[in-house]
C-alpha cells in the first residue's frame, strides 16, 4: 500500500470519527432537560440523611450551577401559608419582565430549594368547596309551600334523577329551623319551608322558554311528591332577566393564557414540575396539570399550568420532550385580593428564566412589558364592573355564572 493510500485512509478515519462525535454531541444537546437529585453526601447533609432535592440543569456550566442551587438549612425564611416560598415577591416589574425580550436570560441565585414534586395524581391539597346555595341574583327561585313538616329523608328520596334543566343546574333547598339558613335537605332533619331553583345563565347561554318550561315540569313533579304547592314566577319576566344577565356576563368574562416556549433544549415533565414546584405549584388531579393554590383552603386554584398529558403518563417521562406549556387564569373565579394577574406574570417570568424559555401569546408573539401593563389595567376595570353588580371575582355567584 502506497503512502498516499495510507494518508487517505487516515484522513477518512478522522473524518468518520468527527462525524460520529458531532452526531453524539448534537444528540446530547437536543435531549430534553431532566430533573436530578442531590447526592447523599451533598454539602449541608448530615450522615445518614438524604440530601435536599432540587433540579440540576445539566446544560449549564458548573459556575452557574453553583449560583442556581444553593441549599440553606439553618437560616431558611418562614414559609407562607400553604408551605410555599415566593422568590419574586420583592422584584420590580422591570426585573420580573427581563425575560420577555429574546436575549440570554440572567440567572438569580436561589437560597431555598423546595422538595421536588413528581407527576402524580395524589397531590391535591384543597378540599372541595361547599356548594353555594340559590341566590335571587342569578337564579329563578320558586317557593314550595308545605302544609306540614316533611322529613329530610322523604325530601331526598323524592329528588329527581338529574339535577339539571337543559344546560342549567337545578336545585332544591330547605330552610333549617334552628339556624334559618337554606341547605340541601339532610337525613334525620324535619323542614317546613322549601324552595326550588334553576340558574338564569351560564357559559352555555341564558335560560330560554323551553328550559323554563322544563323547570316548571320538574319542580311541579317534585312538589307533588312531597305534598307542596309551588308558586312559579312569570316566565316572560324571568327569561328577560336571564337574557340581560347573560349579556352582562358575555361582556365581562375573561380567561387569560400565557404560553411558555423553550428557546433551545426541550424540557422533560420532571424538569418542568421541579421548576414549577419552586414557585408554589402542586400536581393537580389530572395528569399534565399543576395548580397554584390560593391563600384559603377549599377555594379554586389561582393559576393552572398544563402540558401534554400523554407525556406525563409516558412509561419513561424523562425521555419525553416538551417544548411548550400553558399558564392559565380564570379571572372571574379568583378573588381580586389574591392579585392573580400579578402572580401569573411573576410565575411566567420565573419559569421562563429557570428553564430558558420565552413568554408568548397563543399565536406565538412575544409579550412585551407594555402589553402586560395594558392587560393589568383592563383587568382592574373588569373587577370594578363585577363588583358593581355584586358578582365580585371569586364569589360563589360569579363562579357559578361563569361556568
From TrEMBL:
Topology within the bilayer: Single-pass type I membrane protein
Compartments it resides in: Cell inner membrane
InterPro entries linked: ZipA_FtsZ-bd_C, ZipA_FtsZ-bd_C_sf
Annotated region (Disordered), positions in chain: 32-55
Superkingdom per UniProt: Bacteria
Pfam family, any one: ZipA_C
SMART domains to which the protein is assigned, alphabetical: ZipA_C (SM00771)
ZipA C-terminal FtsZ-binding domain: residues covered: 252-379
Keywords, comma-separated and alphabetical: Cell cycle, Cell division, Cell inner membrane, Cell membrane, Membrane, Transmembrane
Family to which the UniProt record says this protein belongs: Belongs to the ZipA family.
Annotated function: Essential cell division protein that stabilizes the FtsZ protofilaments by cross-linking them and that serves as a cytoplasmic membrane anchor for the Z ring. Also required for the recruitment to the septal ring of downstream cell division proteins.
Protein name as catalogued: Cell division protein ZipA
Organism: Hydrogenophaga palleronii
Amino acid at each position: 500500500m502506497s503512502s498516499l493510500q495510507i494518508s487517505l485512509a487516515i484522513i477518512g478515519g478522522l473524518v468518520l470519527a468527527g462525524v460520529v462525535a458531532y452526531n453524539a454531541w448534537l444528540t446530547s444537546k437536543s435531549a430534553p432537560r431532566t430533573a436530578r437529585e442531590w447526592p447523599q453526601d451533598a454539602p449541608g447533609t448530615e450522615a445518614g440523611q438524604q440530601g435536599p432535592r432540587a433540579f440540576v440543569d445539566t446544560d449549564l456550566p458548573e459556575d452557574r450551577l453553583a449560583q442556581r442551587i444553593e441549599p440553606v438549612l439553618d437560616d431558611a425564611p418562614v414559609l407562607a401559608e400553604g408551605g410555599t416560598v415566593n422568590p419574586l415577591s420583592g422584584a420590580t416589574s422591570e426585573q420580573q419582565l427581563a425575560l420577555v425580550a429574546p436575549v440570554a436570560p440572567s440567572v438569580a441565585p436561589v437560597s431555598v430549594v423546595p422538595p421536588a414534586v413528581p407527576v402524580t395524581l395524589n397531590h391535591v391539597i384543597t378540599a372541595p368547596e361547599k356548594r353555594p346555595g340559590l341566590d335571587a341574583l342569578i337564579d329563578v327561585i320558586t317557593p314550595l309551600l308545605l302544609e306540614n313538616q316533611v322529613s329530610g329523608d322523604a325530601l331526598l328520596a323524592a329528588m329527581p334523577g338529574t339535577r339539571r334543566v337543559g344546560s342549567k343546574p337545578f336545585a332544591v333547598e330547605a330552610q333549617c329551623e334552628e339556624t334559618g339558613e337554606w341547605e340541601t335537605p339532610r337525613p334525620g332533619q324535619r323542614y317546613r319551608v322549601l324552595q326550588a331553583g334553576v340558574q338564569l345563565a351560564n357559559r352555555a347561554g341564558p335560560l330560554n322558554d323551553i328550559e323554563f318550561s322544563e323547570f316548571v315540569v320538574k319542580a311541579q313533579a317534585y312538589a307533588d311528591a312531597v305534598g307542596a304547592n309551588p308558586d312559579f314566577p312569570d316566565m316572560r319576566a324571568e327569561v328577560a332577566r336571564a337574557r340581560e344577565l347573560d349579556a352582562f356576563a358575555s361582556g365581562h368574562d375573561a380567561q387569560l393564557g400565557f404560553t411558555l416556549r423553550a428557546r433551545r433544549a426541550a424540557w422533560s415533565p420532571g424538569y418542568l414540575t421541579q421548576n414549577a414546584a419552586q414557585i408554589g405549584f402542586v400536581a393537580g388531579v389530572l395528569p399534565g396539570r399543576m395548580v397554584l393554590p390560593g391563600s384559603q383552603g377549599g377555594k379554586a386554584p389561582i393559576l393552572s399550568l398544563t402540558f401534554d398529558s400523554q407525556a406525563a403518563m409516558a412509561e419513561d417521562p424523562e425521555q419525553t420532550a416538551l417544548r411548550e406549556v400553558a399558564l392559565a387564569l380564570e379571572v372571574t373565579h379568583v378573588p381580586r385580593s389574591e392579585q392573580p394577574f400579578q402572580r401569573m406574570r411573576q410565575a411566567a417570568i420565573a419559569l421562563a428564566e429557570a428553564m430558558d424559555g420565552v413568554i408568548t401569546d397563543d399565536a406565538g408573539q412575544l409579550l412585551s412589558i407594555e402589553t402586560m401593563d395594558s392587560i393589568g389595567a383592563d383587568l382592574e376595570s373588569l373587577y370594578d364592573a363585577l363588583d358593581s353588580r355584586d358578582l365580585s371575582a371569586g364569589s360563589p355567584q360569579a363562579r357559578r355564572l361563569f361556568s
